[in-house]
Amino acid sequence: MSTMSQLETAMALLMQTFDKYAAGQGKTDTLTQAEAKTLLEKELPGLIKAAKNPGEVDKVLKGLDFNGDNEIDFSEFVILVASLTCACHDRCPKK
């Protein structure tokens, strides 16, 4: 059995994390706003604590729902993680 690279492991963890929280309520292939908030609180606690006010988290979640269906699908979740990764790494071009 071959071992996964670090990047393959990171990708697998993204999928597992999304699936774990998406399984709770509603459809199993999307996150409800409540599931997304729980995911952020449990999986990114440092980021949530760093937010200046609790309303910011809700604003982020609403901004993630690109198609306006009140759910976050996997591609919307990946965009969030990629955006946060860029912000933490400070490598993205400033807008």
TrEMBL record:
CDD domains: S-100. Residues 52-87 form the EF-hand domain. GO terms for cellular component: cytoplasm; extracellular exosome. Keywords: Calcium, Metal-binding, Repeat. The keyword Translocase does not apply. GO terms for biological process: endothelial cell migration. Gene3D superfamilies: EF-hand. SUPFAM superfamilies: EF-hand. This is Protein S100. It comes from Collichthys lucidus. The lineage of its organism: Eukaryota, Metazoa, Chordata, Craniata, Vertebrata.
